[in-house]
Amino acid sequence: MLARYVTLAVALTTLLLFTSHAFAEDDQEVKLKGVTVTAQKREENVQDVPVSMNVVTGIDIEEARITDLSELIQYTPNVFSTQSLDNRSMVIRGISTMNTALSPAVGLFVDDIPYAINRMQNPALLDVERVEVLRGPQGTLYGKNTESGAINIITRQPDNELRGKIFGEYGFYDIGKAVPLYRAGGNVSGPILEDELFVGVAFQGKTSDSYMENIYDGDKSAAEYDQKIGRVSLRWTPAQVWDISFIVDAEKNNNKYAWLRYESGAGASDKHKSNWNGGNDWDTDSNNQVLKAKYSGKHFDLLSITSRSDYRTEILNDADFGPFNFGNQDFTFDCVSYNQELRLSSPNDGKALEWLVGLFGSKDKTFAKSHTPVYFAVRDTDIDIGTVAVFGQATYTLFDSLHLTVGTRYEHQNLEGKQTNQFAATPKYSHSETNDEFLPKLSIAYDLTDDIMAYGTYSKGFLSGGYNFHMGNNADDMYFKPEHTTSYEAGFKSVFWDSRLTVNAALFHIDIKDKQVIEWPVGGAPTLRRVSNAAQASSNGLELEVSARPWNEIEFFGGVGYTEAKFDNWVAPRPGGNSFDYKGKYLPNAPKYTYNLGAQYRAMNGLFLRGDLLGTGSYYCDSENTQKVDGYKTVNLKVGYSWEDVDAVLWANNVFNESYVVSRMAYMGSLVQDGEPRSTGLTLTYRF
């Protein structure tokens, strides 16, 4: 197995070296472009930010054929996406949430709109300018639910340039037969009034019967998906100091849910074949609006961000995920979030002191329906969370090379939860709570040379407390408290070889306190569980990322992340009265390592070649470490040609059709979700 990957890498490298020499330009023009980011809520070069972060540009997304966030994070070390269907929440540095959590451990922001619940954490990437992935707690500037990191998706905004594209894609999954998949879309943006008013429109649709078949009834579209998404961006610059934008997007998904199958047990079926005799529907509707107004003055900049997010998903699935007669499960998650942020900051004038202060307020209203009658579990939960915060951060530069940063955030939450439980002794109950958090940050960065920076950072983050929508039984056990992280990070960022080579690395240690975990009450039945803040844990590891452009047409890139995330202290009761000591067990959904390695060649004559090797180490899907997913790796290849206005690209994902699973659970046997088989296709793009 390893030999063919090595052979492929050698062959691809040899081809790229040969062709790049044949078409090489003057080497003096070869540079890796610096990327401007807003990770610290002000514009900076990514190499100047003392944070372990990865930036993927819109060009990178298109060249790698990345379609959504779960695909993008495969190119980012120490970042992982849980594969539990509707709950594809992000995991950074091994810190994940319990599988029934609503609040995410990683903050996701799209055009500064906070995505409030983790079921929203796999958006399509449509006409994106860049994606910033920040590793480590980001509580000071981003607040709640960024205890392990934050992800910023910034879409492309219209300006004076008239530009656009239309693309169409046809491909198929290879499961012994070809299952078609389709994707089409486009975008256009430009001025309505030159230098003053601009508009942008983007849209996309994708559909397929997918690669699962239900052998119970012969349904060949058991996991089909049908997604439609669109966005409109308006931008107004009435004066040189003002930049006002209004962005609206909407998404609709009509999908099926039968991705799971039994690997063993009475209901077992083969790879890519489920065996369901129950419900199979999964529909999602969402829409978002944001109004941003920025004033750029001589002495300060002022930014106002007002946003609303509305997300609803409904799921009806077979309660036993097999051919048994357990009936259906019925879930609904409906979240409406209102947010307002005001930021006052120093202008980018090159002075020694840079500062930022801000106010934030939000109101999140969530309805969670969890109905599994076979287990006497029928609950409806209404959750209201109000948040207010004040924050600030300042950086002072000494001797033109020593950068000292201090920041803090005070955040106050009011939480109220009401639950109706059809099978509880008291069917209706509620719980109200308040919570206050103090989130400091300290950072020291030193420019060893003009191209090498070393830094050390101390920061804190927290995962909001919440309500046990899935297993609550009374007012006392329906609420659980916040979870906290404290991070220590040291790293460096460097540019070498006349800006042809970048090497960035970081080491980290994270303490996790009050970890939210699922426990069985002493003497309780196996179906009765609660959420407790009972565990302590820690995460240690490193990241290394390298990019090199030895010639103008060729680029090499790669990264590796290593994480050891384990429980340090947790002893909990089990059904039957016994206790289990989790000390030394790995946290769920925390791969020990992740890596990516790639090379890309783009010739002056229009030829385009790219190869990527993407790998994930083994991990456990449960806290007891009994449900293990073996590590897996896939290879993606692309070859294409660009004319003046048209691109044609042939692509193949999982070229060697590696067989692997991405999740495993003990239920009535070993219940697994298969990884994607090989897919191959052609994408045609017309640009104007």
From TrEMBL:
Gene3D superfamilies for the chain: TonB-dependent receptor, beta-barrel domain
The UniProt record lists the keyword Transport: yes
Membrane topology label: Multi-pass membrane protein
Domain TonB-dependent receptor plug: 46-149
Coiled coil, from the record: none
Signal peptide (from-to): 1-24
Top-level taxonomic group: Bacteria
PROSITE patterns noted in UniProt: TONB_DEPENDENT_REC_3
Main location: membrane
Keywords associated with the record: Cell outer membrane, Ion transport, Iron, Iron transport, Membrane, Receptor, Signal, TonB box, Transmembrane, Transmembrane beta strand, Transport
TonB-dependent receptor-like beta-barrel domain sequence ranges: 249-655
Keyword Transport tagged: yes
Localization (cell): Cell outer membrane
InterPro entries on file: Beta-barrel_TonB (IPR000531), Beta-barrel_TonB_sf (IPR036942), Plug_dom (IPR012910), TonB-dep_rcpt-like (IPR039426)
Family per similarity comment: Belongs to the TonB-dependent receptor family.
Protein name in UniProt: TonB-dependent receptor
Protein source organism: Pseudodesulfovibrio nedwellii
